[in-house]
Amino acid sequence: MALRPRSAYAVTALAAALVFSLLGIVSSGASVKAGGKVVSASLSKTSFSAAQAKTVKLKCRFSPATKRAVFLLQKKKGSKWVKVRSVTKSGNIKAYTTTVKTLFGSKAVKVAQYRVKVSADANSLSRKFKVTKATSPPPPAALVPKAGFWMGLGNDGVISYVITFTVTAGGTNVTSFKVTFDDLGCEIAGGNVTATSLYPIASGSFASAARGNPMFGGSFDTETKAHGTSRVTGYESDACGESEYEEASWTASWHSAS
Questions:
Q1: In CATH terms, is domain 38-132 a member of 2.60.40.10?
Q2: In whole angstroms, what is the distance from residue 184 CA to residue 191 CA?
Q3: What is the pTM of this model?
């Protein structure tokens, strides 16, 4: 029998070692490939105000092998991205949803451009968003009362009366403001006092002069409803002579177009 030189055994052993080494490398590579992976990441909005950050959602999906995920929030400063905050989630992660406000944690949400980088063992995905200045809501439309004849009732605690007035076209003025009342206890009833001037309607309200008769003021609650106060002085009746009615509250509503 021929004997192999010892060097042949050494060569064989070295070859075996190389084979096992290569197998180890392959095994290690397979382990990396089998690690966690970010499958998808999306933001429900990419431009919003700071106040809306609590409603904007980040939704992520991961491969079944994912046991660890990192959420890195960065702010753009010049040409660089600066870290704001980082959060790590561990466990059997398949899906994860959070809000942008949660990503900020206790950090203030300020106007700037940001990105969130979602990382697992095998890959990472970045999603950008912008925090903008909040826009002021448009002012409410000015209330325009319905033009035409208005009628209502008033009472000063003793005497009740009827209130009527007219709103001019376009809802710009009140005119012909009249108080009609019963002179209880007197021979003549049904007295009335009318103000015939134009009284401008501004911001839904109107008023007479401080020394007018009747003196009155009112506000429109809707296009067809109003309320206010009035006072009549110096009314003369045959039986009562000159009398004065205390300030009374009234309510009125639109009655007809003329």
A1: yes
A2: 11
A3: 0.48
